[in-house]
Amino acid sequence: MSATAATTGVTTGVTAAGTAPAAAGSAPFETIFAGAPLMAILRGMGTERSARLATTAWELGIDSVEVPLQTPEDDRALREVVRLAAERGKAVGAGTIVSVAQVEQAVDAGAAYLVSPGLDAEVVEASRRHGIPILPGVATPTEVQRAVSLGLTWVKAFPAQWLGADWFSYIRGPFPQVRFVATGGMDAGNARVFLDAGVRVVAVGSALEDEAQLPRLAALLER
Predict the structure, then answer these.
(1) 3-state class of 206 per DSSP?
(2) How far is CA 33 from CA 80, 144, 154, 197, in A?
(3) Quick check: is 156 catalytic?
(4) Taking the model in full, what pTM does it have?
(5) 30, 48, 66, 90: which one is catalytic?
């Protein structure tokens, strides 16, 4: 278990044999996202700015922060945000996980959970071997069904803006047990529409280039 996961009390469900049970990749998200239905995605913002925005998000009540891993600087940013999170009892995710090697990199950096843009069974299995939960990306009923067959009940719907809020109302019919994190084109202006459609968490990324988005998102928590 990562240091951050230990700090937050998030368990990964790893058995004595070192492998997680079928649904272990999903159950911890109930704890990770218990504080607020929002996530801040700090993509390509560098170490200093990532640390500042993560701290601001936590102070505003937005507990969940994801740092995508695409460059060496992202790795440094993730490690620094994880360090700051450990001091506050927060869970930090590593995003844009598209390979087994990245799973190992994220675990080494101390991430408490993983986020992928798509659904890759090998990446899901690698996360399971390491005892770390993962949110794979889905955009079709077939992908949702495949995620369920892999033992997952939390997935990332991407790109959510393209799918539209109504998509979630329809997809919940055949998959009532699945919890969705909406990502892609989300901001303070449309987050409420997606939450009202049944999305459990709205993840905001590129919109955070405007740092005024964080307090506007936090205002949604007061409603």
Answers:
(1) helix
(2) 21, 20, 11, 17
(3) yes
(4) 0.87
(5) 66
Q: Coil, helix or strand for 105? A: helix
Helices (H), 66-154: 72-88, 100-109, 121-129, 141-149
d(CA 140, CA 35): 28
For 80-115, write each residue's pLDDT tens digit: 999 999 999 999 999 999 999 999 999 999 999 999
What average pLDDT does the segment 39-47 reach? 97
- Backbone conformation region of residue 54, classed left if phi is above 0, alpha if psi is from -120 to 50, else beta: alpha
Domains and CATH numbers, the chain: 32-213 (3.20.20.70)
Active site residue 122: no
Question: Residue 133 pLDDT more than 50?
Answer: yes
Give the CA angle between residues 96, 101, 106 to the nearest 5°: 55
How confident is residue 69, by pLDDT bands cut at 50, 70 and 90? Answer: very high
Catalytic: which of 156, 209, 211, 222?
156
